[in-house]
Design brief:
This protein is α+β, with helices and mostly antiparallel strands and 437 residues long. The chain is built from 16 helices and 12 strands.
């Protein structure tokens, strides 16, 4: 199966729950994932983190087992239970030996369908999240990414951190988590992905046994698909951190939704621009030619609604303004002059060559399957992936660069010492100095 897209089967239950499965016979392992097609974008206003906290809390005990009993039951099988939210989705995964498949399916159904929401565990969850957030805000790189998201998206559904914000730490309650679960965990927006050394007939039998009678909650939040009403105005923003010697730089603009027809040419263009490591234009100019940084990367975040296009790097504070100017110049050059045939061929070779890595284990295959399920890409998506990549012409790449790179619409955030970079940044244009957190 290595390098070749595996066949995917599909079964729909009367409740609307969908099963997608792959018979994977290389190792006696099985990966089970329950996907809820709603995530952090549905967190209520002022309640950032609800989806992700709810996901984690499902692993803290069920109606018949305490957190310790559940953990011991999973560990006794040598299995792994994981739960998390992202934008657009929430995942609860359980992996273990294929011979334990019936027990694993029973446990997953118990965790998803009958969570205990133990009140005594909630303060512990809150303290874990508080410590994690404090660590993030103390790391300049994490802080810059955190602040850029808030700056760029504001109050829109993608404008808060998946794992929570300082304000929500004080406002979230256990009732918020139970309310979220009762609303969003409905079979009509859920799928099961099962990949492993288990025959299809056996998978279907256990799924029907444990899931067919479950009705779940609702009504769920509507899917978030539209662009935000507003984003931060293009321009320069500075968060003064006088204790730093380096500046963290984040630049970007609104990107594309996953279903956009230019998905493949944009991915290839972005690889050339800034995702291709040392072969990328940004790395060649900012690091190799000028020596301003050790690393720089650009990325389009493709989501159900338009996600951000971001460029991230760092540099000694005195180089901040030249780096911002040079990055803008590289983006402009790719937008105006396009890419070369050799660059395009190398980008295509990279993606086609790395495609088999996503089919090496039950877990990586499951990740591929739940992405195609989440974004309705079709069961033949993996089979046609390499053809889609190789089918992008130089003309299509040039057209997508002109359409989707916007050097004049970049919103730029600098987290660094104003004393060393503000005056030079002001020479590039007006600078908005942001209040500290």
């Amino acid at each position: 199966m290595t390098g070749q897209a595996p066949p995917i089967y599909q079964v729909s239950l009367p409740s609307g729950l969908r099963l997608l499965g792959v018979e994977y016979e290389r190792v006696p392992w099985v990966s089970l994932t329950c996907i809820v097609k709603r995530g952090a974008e549905t967190d209520p206003a002022g309640k950032a983190g609800v989806a992700d906290w709810t996901a984690e809390f499902l692993t803290q005990g069920t109606a018949r087992r305490t957190q310790r009993q559940l953990a011991e039951g999973v560990e006794s099988l040598g299995a792994q239970l994981m739960a998390r939210a992202e934008y657009d989705s929430t995942y609860i995964s359980l992996e273990g030996l294929a011979e334990d498949f019936p027990v694993l399916m029973e446990i997953l159904a118990e965790v998803v369908q009958t969570p205990g929401f133990p009140a005594e565990e909630f303060p512990l969850l809150k303290e874990r999240r508080r410590a994690e957030l404090a660590q993030i805000l103390d790391d300049p790189r994490e802080l810059a990414t955190f602040c850029y998201r808030r700056l760029f998206y504001g109050e829109s559904p993608y404008g808060h951190a998946v794992r929570g914000e300082p304000e929500s730490l004080e406002t979230l309650t256990l009732a918020d988590l139970t309310g979220y679960y009762q609303r969003e965990f409905a079979p009509g927006v859920m799928s099961l992905v099962v990949v492993g050394m288990v025959p299809r007939g056996r998978v279907e039998e256990e799924v029907r046994r444990h899931w067919e009678g479950w009705q779940g909650g609702g009504p769920v939040s509507p899917a978030y698909t539209m662009p935000p009403d507003r984003t931060a105005a293009p321009g320069l923003y500075l968060l003064d951190r006088p204790e730093l010697t380096q500046s963290e730089i984040r630049m970007g603009h609104l990107g594309l939704p996953r279903h956009h027809p230019d998905y493949f040419p944009v991915r290839l263009v972005n690889y050339i621009l800034g995702e291709g490591g040392f072969s990328s234009r940004l790395m060649a100019r900012i690091r190799a030619d000028l020596g301003y940084t050790y690393g720089i990367r650009s990325r389009f975040h493709f989501r159900r609604a338009p996600g951000p296009f971001n460029i991230a790097t760092f540099t000694p504070a005195e180089n901040t303004a030249p780096v911002v100017e040079e990055i803008t110049g590289v983006v402009r050059d790719v937008r105006d002059n396009g890419v070369t045939a050799q660059e395009l061929a190398e980008a295509q070779s990279y993606y086609v060559g790395h495609f088999p890595q996503g089919l090496e284990t039950a877990r990586t295959i499951a990740q591929q399957v739940f992405n195609l399920e989440l974004y309705d890409l079709g069961l033949d998506y993996l089979s046609r992936y390499c053809q889609e990549i190789q089918g992008v012409t130089l003309e299509a790449a040039q057209k997508s660069a002109r359409a989707h790179l916007q050097p004049d619409a970049l919103t730029t955030l600098v987290v660094g010492p104003a004393s060393k970079c503000l005056s030079a940044l002001e020479e590039l244009g007006g600078v908005t100095v942001l209040p500290g957190l």
